[in-house]
Design goal:
By secondary structure, the protein is of the alpha+beta class. The protein contains 7 helices and 10 strands. Strands 1-2-6-7-8-9-10 form a 7-stranded antiparallel β-sheet. A 3-stranded antiparallel β-sheet has the order 3-4-5, with no helix packed on it. Strand 3 and strand 4 form a beta hairpin. The longest helix has 16 residues. The N terminus and C terminus are likely disordered.
Length: 274
């Protein structure tokens, strides 16, 4: 499996080691509600970066603490002395409280948690209840909240809303006005600040819904879409992922309304999270 363990007593929770990678690391996916997932999230600690009596005066070491009594701490990164360690658990707890402040309860909603092999990088996604809508074709678009965090300086803390539409096994996501709450690891989380951000984003929903409904009624000629897929799209995406795979997926979605299953399901997860 993975060097990361999960609690097998959580019978309603599903976990699997995916075939994706995240900056070269294997990825563990867990699904369940927040209460079920929270105990499975690793805790990290910081220690002087030293060998014997010699200590680096600029760096500290980040270690993943054991989740089981039989486990040992594992070093996962070195960070600056001024780096503020933000725990993955604190991110989820603050977002959960912030949603409560604006009267959104996700306690019973299934969510997805992705963890890198040692747990140093995390992405959590959860649908927002009562916020989905049908743009006019009978296929609802669901609003999700997403949290991205790391304890190894590979990414800043990021909280976003995105729309999710199940047109393939992985779904399609696109941002809400491309707005993101980003925090460098030099301060603590404040649920009130997060609640203000979330409230402001939710105020944009009526305008967003009108935009997507307008898109649904806009006619696109097949020739122009083919030119876009084979030209600009293939050129831009081909720099980072396999060109034929992604261009073919777009063409299939366009012609069939749904993506057929590919054996090569996803490229490096860092592409998705960048």
């Amino acid at each position: 499996m993975s060097s990361y363990h999960y609690d097998e007593s959580a019978l309603t929770q599903k976990a699997r080691l995916t075939d994706w990678t995240w900056e070269g690391s294997s990825v563990l996916e867990l699904t369940g509600n927040v209460t079920e997932l929270f105990p499975q999230i690793p805790i990290f600690s910081r220690h002087p970066f030293r060998v014997g009596s010699e200590e680096n005066r600029f760096k500290d070491e980040i270690r993943r603490e054991p989740l089981k009594i039989t486990d040992e701490p594992i070093p996962v990164a070195t960070v600056s002395k001024i780096y503020s360690l933000i725990q993955h658990r604190d991110v989820l707890a603050s977002v959960f409280r912030a949603l409560k402040m604006i009267r959104i309860d996700i306690s019973g909603v299934d969510s997805s948690l992705l963890l890198s092999e040692y747990g140093e990088r995390m992405q959590w996604s959860c649908s927002i209840p009562g916020m989905d809508f049908d743009p006019g074709d009978g296929c609802p678009i669901v609003l999700q909240i997403n949290c991205l965090n790391s304890v190894d300086t590979s990414t800043v803390l990021e909280i976003t809303f995105s729309w999710h539409r199940l047109i393939c096994s992985n779904g399609m996501m696109f941002g809400l006005k491309e707005n993101r709450l980003r925090r460098r690891h030099i301060q603590s989380l404040d649920p009130s600040d997060i609640a203000d951000y979330l409230r402001g984003q939710l105020n944009e929903l009526p305008q967003e819904k009108s935009l997507y409904s307008e898109w649904f009624t806009t006619r696109v000629e097949p020739e122009s879409l083919t030119e876009w897929v084979d030209g600009r799209l293939a050129k831009e995406w081909g720099r980072r992922v396999r060109k034929r795979h992604w261009s073919s997926r777009i063409t299939t979605i366009w012609t069939r309304g749904r993506c057929r299953r590919f054996s090569d399901r996803r490229a490096d997860i860092s592409v998705r999270m960048s």
